[in-house]
Design goal:
Two copies of one chain form a homodimer. In chain A, strand 2 and strand 3 form a beta hairpin. The first copy, chain A, is mainly α. The radius of gyration of chain A is 19 Å and the shape is globular. Chain A is 74% helix and 5% strand. In chain A, strands 1-3-2 form a three-stranded antiparallel β-sheet. In chain A, helix 4 packs antiparallel against helix 7 and helix 9 runs antiparallel to helix 10. Chain A is built from ten helices and three strands, in the order H-E-H-H-E-E-H-H-H-H-H-H-H. Chains A and B meet through helix 3, helix 4 and helix 7 of A and helix 3, helix 4 and helix 7 of B. The structure holds a DNA duplex.
DNA sequence: TGTGACAAAATTGTTTACAATCAGTTCCAT
DNA sequence: ATGGAACTGATTGTAAACAATTTTGTCACA
């Protein structure tokens, strides 16, 4: 733990991109923070050329913003766009939930119900971290069970852009009490192998997430 | 028109990426075709460095595939993935259609109906090119009217990956006769400002596109 | 005190040269 | 003939040097 911000050494452009992406995801690099090539090169033990192409790639992914001759910054996603992202995720995760409902095996259904039980327990004991973990597990499990790799990749990319707002949301008191029944409804529908209902429940859940983001911004700042 | 494959001169990495993207879209660069850096550099009048970062960006976009020390190729999208792409587009364009239905003005509705009329005329006169144009116009207009930029960008990126299959489809005899009523149903629903029905019609249409791709591949090769 | 011109520093953009790797070929021993 | 070691040409990977640009700092002057 000598160098706090560096997990492992990056050798090529892809590695550097991965590290920067992880740092943004972890909140170590915050929106609008300048990304000076020389600094990043030293920090990750890579050449400046590698850092440069990594920044190009991250720009395509929408995580980084570049201005000619004025360098790169962590892109600050405006609220309106964050809501758009949730709306798109809503459509895609609804698709995934529906597909999961048509493909799920009995063993996988049990796995899903287990996630539901642990989320319920987390709400009862007031363990926010455990609830957040359950939330992540549920969404990623459904995406995996859908077998839709294109949707999975798209959702991943979009979610990375909106990390900033995810944190805000879990900090909101009473949020988990509200979203728990939504999550359980999704699990029930998928386990009951009802694609239409699973999609509907997922859409409803993510629309509520969108509304919560909108509201938290309206009141927060 | 001295150099057939080059439209304008590329000076930086973004320009090169644009040119290569356009060439792939136009079918000048076909799947699995090798992309030799030195050749591209000469062809587009750019340095090899710029070509290199352009290839990195296009790899992130999913248009190009790179293998370490063995260069870049135009990525060949397998059929299964093309179907996934249509499925994702189905979810996203349904979202756009629904949003368009809630936001559309009278003038925009007339614009949409006009597209419908020209598509109908194209089918009656057997003008395939005009029908393809109408198809493009309709989809892009709905996406624009939705005001959902995130969805728009995502759809664009996905469609670029699946160009190969779009061509195939329009070559199929009787395809336009089948899809015309689907298109008209979408237009009617959006103009009637019925989001649910618009989304349903769009989903149905794109599912039929997916089925047609699957079938054309099954029989074609 | 404020403002403009100028100089210096920091940073990014671009090119070039060189190193590493791979595919194909030749050639020799078996 | 056959298999493999060594060679060759083509191509990609890497780094470092240089050029261009922006930003920051300084100072004279109103």
């Amino acid at each position: 733990m000598a160098t706090a911000t560096r997990a492992s050494v990056a050798v090529n452009a892809t590695d550097v991109a991965d590290q920067i992406r992880a740092a943004i995801f972890a909140g170590e690099l915050v929106p609008n923070q300048r990304l000076v090539e020389a600094d990043l090169a030293e920090m990750y033990g890579a050449s400046r050329g590698h850092v440069r192409t990594a920044l190009s790639e991250l720009t395509v992914e929408g995580l980084v913003e570049r201005i000619q001759n004025r360098g790169a910054r962590v892109r600050s996603v405006p609220v309106e766009e964050a809501i758009e992202i949730v709306e798109v995720r809503s459509a895609l995760e609804a698709l995934c939930a529906a597909r999961a409902a048509t493909r799920i095996t009995d063993a996988e259904a049990e796995e899903l119900r287990q996630i539901g039980r642990s989320m319920q327990a987390a709400v009862e004991t007031g363990d926010q971290a455990a609830y957040a973990q359950g939330n992540t597990d549920l969404h990623s499990t459904l995406i995996r069970l859908s077998g839709q790799k294109t949707a999975a990749a798209t959702i991943d990319r979009l979610r990375a852009q909106a990390v900033r707002f995810q944190y805000r949301l879990f900090a909101k008191p009473g949020r988990s009490q509200q979203s728990l029944p939504e999550h359980l409804a999704i699990i029930d529908a998928v386990c009951a192998r009802e694609p239409e209902e699973a999609a509907r429940a997922m859409r409803e859940h993510l629309m509520s997430v969108g509304a919560a983001i909108e509201e938290s911004v309206r009141s927060g700042s």
